[in-house]
Amino acid sequence: MIIDAHPDLGAHTITISGTGEVVFSHPALRGVHLHAAGLSVDEAAVCTAIVEATRETRNEPMPVNDDSVGELESLIDAAGTLRPEYVHDRPASDQERAGPMSLLPETTDAYAQTGDSADEINQIAPVASIEAQERVTASDPDLDQAVAKWNSPDCDLPKLTVLGPVHVHGHGDVPAVRRAYLAEMLTYLVLHPDGVVTNEFLQVTGVSRSRLTIDLALLRKWLGTNPTTGHDHLQDARETAAAKRLGMPAYEAEDILVDLDLFRRLRARGEARGADGITDLITALRLVSGEPFSQLRDKGWSWLHDGQRHDHVAVSMIVDTAHIVVSRALAEGDHALAREAADIALLAAPHDDIPHLDYVRVLTATGHQGLAEKELDDHIYNRDDGDGPVEPPERSKRAAG
Prior knowledge:
Blueprint: E1 2-6, E2 10-16, E3 21-24, E4 34-35, H1 41-54, E5 87-88, H2 108-112, H3 118-124, E6 127-128, H4 130-139, H5 143-151, E7 159-161, E8 167-169, H6 176-190, H7 198-205, H8 209-223, H9 241-246, E9 257-258, H10 259-273, H11 278-285, H12 310-331, H13 335-348, H14 353-365, H15 369-381, H16 394-399
Parallel strand pairs: 7-9
Antiparallel strand pairs: 1-2, 2-3, 3-4, 5-6, 7-8
Helix pairs in contact: 4-10, 5-10, 6-8, 10-11, 11-12, 12-13, 12-14, 13-14, 14-15
């Protein structure tokens, strides 16, 4: 290879030997010993394998839950957004209002000025159908009551938190040393609302049948009696609604308030209500208390990494919802709400780019350009993940103004 190292040296040849040593042709540089950076044969083989394994990968759509557990599930995906058949594209003209059936009702241009592209706005805030509005509302008439119970210090139902450190608020008394394990059991139950048979529970927990019986009794005691029905929240496996559906004994946790479930329901209703639904999205975001599914017990939760990644779905759900609220708030000049939504997203997903970009948008809108540039430098341009400086995507550049 020929280089122009310096005007005084002129053009000279550099060669790399078979051992990786860099050899300079100029006499003044013959005493310099350098080795070219490179990969070993094994390292190169691994890199090649990664490229081959990911060559045909593509983004997968958000999963959907089992429709059999309720009318609402037939209308939404696992993150609480309306399924494609219940939404329409925004107007073709960026200068035409999307109307009251979109969470971002103004023109696409109005929101593009705050950082999103037209395609991104169409994706995050399509126009909901009248059918979706009617069916979502009719399928979940008790949502407001459930949210009020969750927020009440005198709630008479057990509460499970997973949109943050996993925590159970029960009504019985169980040993503190067993609570983390029992919280995992309850989480598995509520994430499998179609019912859990004994053999599945044995496989997930890895305990003996007799130990499982003891643990389920402890969980039943912790949850207490359902004030609505008068029987245990965790019934005998032979008497549950899931057992009747499956034709065999199956465990089911009844009437447990779960922040993840409430968030999905609020997001679904908010999207179905269009412009008026932004309050539902704000209410949903205020359920978040940290990184979803965090502070898990050691040597547990291996099932969370198999099949549907509920933790990933939860993070995506929060980030996307906060992004809509930030976009709407900035367009309307509500900087306090935009900051609140951005802060919640950062709390839930500190390593995701979008919350940092939304935070940059808020800082820029409130006149803190220096802080916005520092945020971009620290979290987008110069990552702390060891990859070093990167060329930011167009979205980042737009956020930077």
